[in-house]
Every structure is written in C-alpha cells, then in structure tokens.
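Below is a filled-in request sheet from our internal design queue. Each sheet records the structural input a requester submitted and the sequence that came back. We keep these sheets so that new team members can see what a complete request looks like end to end.

REQUESTER: design group, bay 2
PRIORITY: normal
MODE: inverse folding
CHAIN LENGTH: 272
BACKBONE (tokenized):
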C-alpha cells in the first residue's frame, strides 16, 4: 500500500457489513463533530456474522482497500465480526494508519464498568463463536466471568426497523433470559446493529444492568488517539458524512432516517 500524506484535515474512514455501523457514525459525530467521516456499508454482502472466517477476512481487506482510496488518517472497524476475526487483515491493508476495532474498545469499557465481575456479551454467531470478547476481557482482567449469547435475529429485526415490535420483544426476552439468569451486571452490545434495539433491551434487562455500547466506546477511543497524535481536525464546521453502500441505497435512506434521526445526505453506490 503506497504511503499517503495525512493531516488533521484528513477524513476518518468507517466501515461495516451493512447499516449497523451508522451507530458508530452517530457516536463519532457526537464526540468529534468537526471530523470528516467516510462511511462504507457493505449492504450487498450483509450479514458477515453468518459467513466463514475466510470470507470475512476477504471482505475486511476489500472494505479497507476501498476506504484507503480516500487517504484517511484513521480507520474504524464498525463491524464486530471483522473486529473479532480480521482486525489483523485491516491493519496490514491500511499500513501505517491507526486502526480501531469496536470489539477491543467495548471490552475495555465493560471491564471499567462492571462491579461484580460478571459480564454478558451478545453478538452475531461469528463474533460469539470466535470467543474474541471473552479473550479481550480476560486479557485485561482474568478474574472476570464472561457469559456470551449469539442473537442472530437481532440484525434482520433492526434492519427491518422493528424497534418496538412485539415480535422483537419476544425474541429479545428469549435471548436475554439465559444471560440474566447468570446474574450479570454489565451487558455488551457486541454488534453495531444492537444499539438500535437498546430501548427494548434495557426494558428487559432493567435498570440494574449497565449497557455497553461499543459505538460510544470506539468514539471515545478515536478522540483519545487523534488527540495524542495531534491529529484532531481544528475546524469548527459540522461536517456531513460521505456515505457509500454496495447495494440498495433506497432502503439505506429509510434506515438512515431511523438510526440517525435526520434526513440522509447523498449516498454513493459502489461496486465491490
């Protein structure tokens, strides 16, 4: 990968398997309002969570190559599945550019928040079966007990906009009952789609359980890193994100409104 010139004005590249990464865009915008963001949602190939590791690693490389054309100063992997199974591929492809994955940021925040040392993780099958969250948490503190649950139906429910739907509640109660029986005090939303269902999840877990949104965690980490490198954008203008998808810009537009609470800027359709 040829070296490119980066400056505080360079954009931050963010990618995800679909539209879930918009929760990361929203969190980064709230934390760093003057940063220019380039977002790619691989809507043609979503979901990644049910694919093989070989395929996930291939997609991770291709998504990173696409963002590298925009000469970013940082890449945020908004996809937990890629964070779990292909972060090294993203790092190799991006060369010297710092890479932050949602997974490690979420794990660190969970360790800081838990009081009882009993943490629950929900995510896609690929993320949960990789055991990457448990490993990341136990690397920080090996005494913490981690309980994981794959929730494969949450992504399609979020993508359909079934936020307050009775079907979503039934499925969420089914998924979460097992973790709640383990007396957890902290729950990591280990997929960027899940914050869309946060209200529903919190109504089931109750006020005693801290919810860790890896999108908020990664935004904080991005600010910390850019600040340490003196790479924060000095501008005061609120930048509109540049959005790219590999399929269905119309559906993306509806979901953007749902996730972000605003009308969507133009979306570019890219070939993968």
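RETURNED SEQUENCE:
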């Amino acid at each position: 990968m040829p070296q490119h010139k980066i400056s505080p004005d360079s954009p931050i590249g963010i990618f995800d398997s679909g539209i879930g990464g918009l929760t990361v865009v929203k969190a980064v915008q709230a934390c760093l309002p003057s940063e220019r963001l380039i977002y790619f949602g691989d809507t043609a190939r979503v979901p990644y969570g049910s694919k093989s590791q070989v395929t996930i690693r291939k997609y991770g490389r291709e998504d990173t190559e696409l963002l590298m054309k925009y000469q970013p100063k940082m890449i945020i992997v908004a996809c937990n599945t890629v964070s779990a199974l292909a972060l090294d591929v993203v790092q190799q492809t991006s060369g010297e550019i710092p890479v932050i994955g949602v997974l490690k940021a979420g794990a660190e925040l969970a360790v800081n928040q838990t009081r009882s040392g009993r943490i629950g993780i929900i995510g896609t099958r690929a993320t949960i079966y990789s055991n990457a969250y448990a490993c990341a948490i136990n690397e920080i503190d090996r005494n913490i007990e981690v309980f994981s649950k794959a929730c494969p139906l949450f992504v399609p429910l979020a993508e359909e906009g079934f936020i307050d739907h009775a079907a979503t509640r039934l499925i969420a109660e089914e998924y979460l009952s097992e973790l709640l029986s383990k007396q957890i005090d902290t729950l990591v939303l280990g997929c960027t789609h899940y914050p869309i269902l946060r209200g529903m999840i919190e109504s089931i877990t109750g006020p005693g359980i801290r919810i860790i949104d890896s999108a908020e965690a990664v935004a904080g980490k991005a600010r910390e890193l850019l600040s340490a490198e003196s790479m924060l954008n000095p501008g005061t203008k609120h930048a509109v994100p540049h959005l790219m998808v590999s399929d269905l810009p119309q559906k993306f537009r509806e979901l953007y409104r749902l996730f972000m609470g605003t009308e969507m800027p133009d979306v570019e359709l890219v070939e993968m």
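SHEET NOTES:
- The radius of gyration is 18 Å.
- The chain has a mean pLDDT of 92.
FILED BY: M.R.
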